Amino acid sequence: MDFSKTKTELSKLIGDKKVIQKNDGTMDEALFNSYGTDRTKVYPPNYQVLVFPETTEDVAAVVSYAYQNEIAIVPSGGRTGYAGGAVAKNGEIVISLSKMNQVVDFDPFLGTLHVQAGMITKNLHKEAEERGFYFPVDFAATGSSHIGGNIATNAGGVRVVHYGLIRDWVLGLTVVNGKGEVYRFNGEILKNNTGYDLKHLFIGSEGTLGIITEAVVKLTKPPKDIRVIFLAVPEYKNILEIFRETHNFDLPLLAFEFLTDYCLDKVKEHLGVPDPFQTPSKYYVLMEFEVGGETDEEKLYSILESITEKELITDGSIAQNSRQNETFWKYREGISESLSLAYTVHKNDISLPLRNMEAFLDEMTTLLTKKYQGFNIALFGHIGDGNLHLNIVKPKDLTDAEFFTQCKQVDPEMFTLIQKFKGSISAEHGIGLLKKDYLNFSRSQSEIETMRAIKLAFDPKGILNPGKVL
Fold first, then answer.
1. Would the keyword Metal-binding turn up in this protein's UniProt record (predicted)?
2. Cα 413 off chain centre by
3. What integer pLDDT is reported at residue 373 of this predicted model?
């Protein structure tokens, strides 16, 4: 492929400053490469042309050109994913949405915010707060992830147990399909019963059906007040008992997270935060509640009193101010960064019915102990919605290639176990490149064939994020 020709022709379509070719002197090579990958370390980026559109029309022009010339495209957001969904490894054009970061409209009556897809998630939170509203989808990567990427992967995060997935907060989308055609799925009204609601096909499609360029998201009222409890828990089975106990009190549970002692140690090393308790524990639980007044405060202390009397915990603390709230959350949200920056990690993001969780973990522990002898396992997750993050940490004496080969040999056995307990091989990170060979563990053959047919309808030449998911 003549990449210089591609750059020249795209520059004519959308403007010279919006198109960069590798090593043309415009951008440092390391920064250039970073737009063609995500947080996975399995596949190195390999591409030559990077595009920075500023409007939906820019994106449509680039995709139309790519369709006519049969050139593959990889959409690039905040690149915070862990499934290889944003990796450009075969000379694709990379379309970065980072310049598309503006508020398009705000509706105070409906309570919606219309934004471009490249807006950083934390900035969307701020935009909502400045208008007296609240956008509840939140997770550790909100400071760098894009709302479009969140929608493309149907992001979950730490408050799914109360607010649900991002799918539940998307009212409208603007999408460019694989031919460069623009869809505008109405986001100005709540009721629109006019046939298939096609926007839901694009939520969670990982850029394989179309490129999301704008979104209308629903907003809600901010929580009245937030209280965070951090607990030391001796046994995993106690965690589920604590979760059940929270249902005995009429107090809104916003988040229910857990982590192991290994995870806590890594966060302390990375962030320099202090020990939460004098005596270490095998497991830790973080709970967040919405508190509306004195009666709710009493319920909060009643929960802590109840789980203490039932000997479900060895220690516990209620954050006394916003600063301590932040510290407690660092113990949980600092895990992924503390692992990914210091180690090579093989990540599995899985979900199971909570009633099957304990039995699954017993069998999984036996499997991992046998297959990963001498390896460290970092286990944490959103236990309130049945989502586990299972991280295998590479030993120092193995090369990356040896490590990933060994992990790939064990994954099918783990996925078979997940299938046995009626779970999913991907809870929120998506399929991308890393899990596409194992999609059959969570989807039937007829489902996969239907997905292929949908892909063909929206992307007839297969140029959008090729090789991902399917």
1. no
2. 24
3. 87
Does residue 453 lie within any of the structural domains? no
- Total structural domains within the chain: 4
Q: Is 246 a domain residue?
A: yes
**CA distances in angstroms from 336 to 82, 183, 293, 346, 368, listed in the order given:** 10, 35, 35, 12, 20
Q: From its phi and psi, is residue 20 left (phi > 0), alpha (psi between -120 and 50) or beta?
A: beta
Whether the predicted model's global pTM rises above the 0.85 cut: yes
Long-range contacts of 185-194 (CB under 8 A, 24+ apart): 187/112, 187/114, 187/215, 187/216, 188/107, 188/110, 188/112, 188/216, 189/110, 190/110
Contact 94, 32 (CB under 8 A): no
The answer to whether position 127 is within a domain reads yes
Q: Please, what's the b/e burial string for 261-274 (b: 16 or more CB within 10 A of its CB; e: otherwise)?
A: ebbbebbbebeeee
75: left (phi over 0), alpha (psi -120 to 50) or beta: beta
122 occurs within a structural domain: yes
| Interval 330-368: pLDDT, tens | 999 999 999 988 999 999 999 999 999 999 999 999 999
Beta bridge partners of 73: 93, 464
Domain boundary among 49, 76, 96: 96
The helix, strand and coil proportions of the chain, stated in percent and rounded to the nearest 5, come to: 40, 20, 40
Q: Do residues 230 and 317 lie in contact, with contact meaning Cβ atoms separated by under 8 Å? A: yes
∠ CA 251-155-162 to the nearest 5 degrees?
A: 10
How do beta strands 73-76 and 93-96 pair?
A: parallel
Give the DSSP letter string of 134-181. Answer: B-----GGGGT-BHHHHHHTT---TTHHHH--GGGGEEEEEEEETTS-
Sheet holding 112-116, edge to edge: 103-107, 112-116, 210-218, 170-177, 182-185
Q: Which residues contact 84 (CB under 8 A, 6 or more apart)?
A: 38, 40, 42, 43, 432, 433, 434, 468
Residues 192 and 256 in one domain: no
Please give the single-letter amino acid code of residue 30. A
d(CA 144, CA 161): 23
pLDDT of residue 114 exceeding 90, the answer is yes
